[in-house]
Amino acid sequence: MLDITAISKTFHPGTPNARQALRQLSLHLEDGEFATIVGSNGAGKSTLFGAIAGSFYTDEGRILLDGTDLTFQPEHRRSRVIGRLFQDPMRGTAPHMTIEENLALAYLRASHGSPFRRITAKDRERFRSQLAQLDMGLEDRMHQPVGLLSGGQRQALTLLMATMVPPKLLLLDEHTAALDPATADKVLELTRRIVAEHRITCLMVTHNMAQALSLGNRTLMMAEGSIVLDVSGAEREGLTVNDLLERFRSGAGHALDNDRILLA
Ligand SMILES: Nc1ncnc2c1ncn2[C@@H]1O[C@H](COP(=O)(O)OP(=O)(O)OP(=O)(O)O)[C@@H](O)[C@H]1O
């Protein structure tokens, strides 16, 4: 489904602030795979997501999704087939528009409809039943502005918007890290359910090592712009968090230094 071949990205090249964030990184994901990603601070995890989503073009390498070459496709075109959630629940929704209007925009974009088409009664019914599945009472607040929702409600809505037409790829960048523990658990459970139900190919950055091993079918570890560890199947099932840290140390040549992992 996703084929990344030897992508590199340097920010501010040729200046004293030059920083190589991705180094010849290659990654292949099968259809329906769900891989978690952990890594040190500044390892390039968010940059990898930016490269895939088209926030910038890479300096070299190729990115293919479901056989289509995205390498030089603009971000707005990729957003029809790639869903992305950020740590900040305020991103990804328009606060002054109602829940219904936000859902309509997401739906029309992903279903290749005209963004100016009217919302029909049938659309409204679909939105209502999808909102009800979040179990947060949002189906009765469809005419309220999204800005009135709590962080957790807003992140759940963003998740729904990103998946109501299942994307070819879902990128989750620590999307529960800014939520309180109970809400984070709820949004994570929703994520697990929606991804499994639609068999969405998914990459999820997390600083929670236990989650990195328990969610999905594969764990990737990044250091200095490269993937230094890639485990799946029986090998992954037998791993503990300590094993993972040890494997990272031998792959990267140094201990995993991520302040959020240490705090967790
Ligand atoms: N827009 C940018 N301009 C300049 N440098 C950047 C930019 N974005 C990222 N970087 C640098 O690229 C490197 C990789 O950053 P990135 O945010 O991808 O790391 P990360 O693995 O997501 O880190 P963290 O876990 O701390 O969020 C860092 O050194 C960062 O400072």
Report what the structure shows:
Strand 9 and strand 10 form a beta hairpin. The chain has one domain: P-loop containing nucleotide triphosphate hydrolases (Rossmann fold, 3-Layer(aba) Sandwich), CATH 3.40.50. Strands 6-7-8-3-9-10 form a six-stranded mixed sheet, sandwiched between helices. A four-stranded antiparallel sheet has the order 2-1-4-5, covered by helices on one side. The chain is globular. The mean pLDDT is 92. The protein has ten helices and ten strands. Helix 3 runs parallel beside helix 5 and helix 5 packs parallel to helix 6. The protein has 264 residues and is α/β, with parallel strands linked by helices. Bound molecules: adenosine-5'-triphosphate (ATP). The site of adenosine-5'-triphosphate has 13 residues, from strand 2 and helix 1. The site of adenosine-5'-triphosphate (ATP) has 13 residues, from strand 2 and helix 1.
Main features:
single chain, alpha/beta, Rossmann fold, 10 helices, 264 residues, 6-stranded mixed sheet, 4-stranded antiparallel sheet, binds adenosine-5'-triphosphate, 36% helix
**How many helix segments?**
10
- Distance between termini? 33 Å
The CATH homologous superfamily is termed P-loop containing nucleotide triphosphate hydrolases
Could you state the order of secondary-structure elements as H and E?
EEEHEEHEHHHEHEHEEHHH
Question: For the report, how would you describe the main beta sheet?
Answer: 6 strands, mixed
Q: Rough shape?
A: globular
Q: Fill in the CATH topology.
A: Rossmann fold
CATH architecture level-2 label:
3-Layer(aba) Sandwich
What is the CATH level 1 assignment? Alpha Beta
Could you give the count of β-strands? 10
Mean pLDDT: 92
Proportion of β residues? 15-25%
Radius of gyration: 19 Å
